[in-house]
Amino acid sequence: MNPKRGKAIAVVAGAGAILLLGQAGGLRDYIQESWYQGGQPQAEAVFAMQADDESGQEANLRKEIEAEALKLNEQPIDAVVDRVWKAVPGYNGREVDAQATYLRTVEKRKLAEPGSAEVSKIYYVYREIKPKISLEDLGPQPIYKGNPHKKMAALMINVAWGNEYIKPMLDTLDQEGVKATFFLDGSWLKKNPEMAKEIQARGHEIENHAYSHPNMSQLSKERATLEIVKTKQLLKDTLGVNNTWFAPPSGDFNQRTVEIAAAQGLKTVLWTVDTVDWKNPDPASVIAKISRKAEAGSLILMHPTASSKASLKGIIQALKAKGLKPGTVAETLSSDRLDDPEG
């Protein structure tokens, strides 16, 4: 036999043996044994072949991730002062974390069933990018809606009366797995601390609705300040709440009101869609109105009334049917993204 041909056959046979042993978990042992038995060049060659193959696969995967990242990355959206809607919050961008995506993909593929789609899937990991301009940077401005790129809608429930409807509404929110924001009138809170604690115990956001339900624009600066501060302190003392948002009673306010609230660290919130439930509309008409008018970022105003008690479930379902996540004011006005940060 030709010596060169015999040597080639031996190398191929040795490579086959190494691959088989590698599958059984013995590749390292075989290389070590070959090394000590004088097969150092042969073992090194096969190990290098496998390393080159793995290196090539790694490089290809990294290139694929980088190429797809260009399509998947999204720039953040700055908060702005709109001519009509006033302060509109920003929305975080996202970018693919290439290294984390690579490591996650390698790990997931190791666990995948051979031949399954998961073997070739890329498991993306994202990181969020904050806007350069946030809601806080806009100064004292009223807020009527969230960012239209964030598919959420907030449920605002202003409470100054209507105790008999609160628990049924809380039960509906529990059943639907939804949290809302309850803006409490301070005088109501003082008379109904246990009811307020029940709202809090159910996991809802609790905020400031002034103290005596006044028309804020008609008050002196001192009286307007007192209305906000008194309820802010009561929320802290009764519920341990660090107040963030202020909803003017009846939606009555002026720029001075916004500035007074801002001086107390509160942002003034109005609404996008009003149920006008205090007029006791037919629940079906309320649901139809929400279905027609609610959009991404909508703040939906209601009160504890017979109409809202009866329509609340339908409102929530109408929002979900439009692809909107019902939630709190804080969630809706946050710049945080809704999508899974690990994609």
UniProtKB/TrEMBL annotation:
InterPro entries: Glyco_hydro/deAcase_b/a-brl (IPR011330), NODB_dom (IPR002509), Polysacc_deacetylase_ArnD (IPR050248). It comes from the Bacteria. One of its GO terms (molecular function) is hydrolase activity, acting on carbon-nitrogen (but not peptide) bonds. PROSITE patterns: NODB. GO terms for biological process: carbohydrate metabolic process. Residues 151-327 form the NodB homology domain. One of its GO terms (cellular component) is membrane. SUPFAM superfamilies: Glycoside hydrolase/deacetylase. PANTHER family: CHITOOLIGOSACCHARIDE DEACETYLASE, GLYCOSYL TRANSFERASE-RELATED. This is NodB homology domain-containing protein. It comes from Paenibacillus yonginensis.
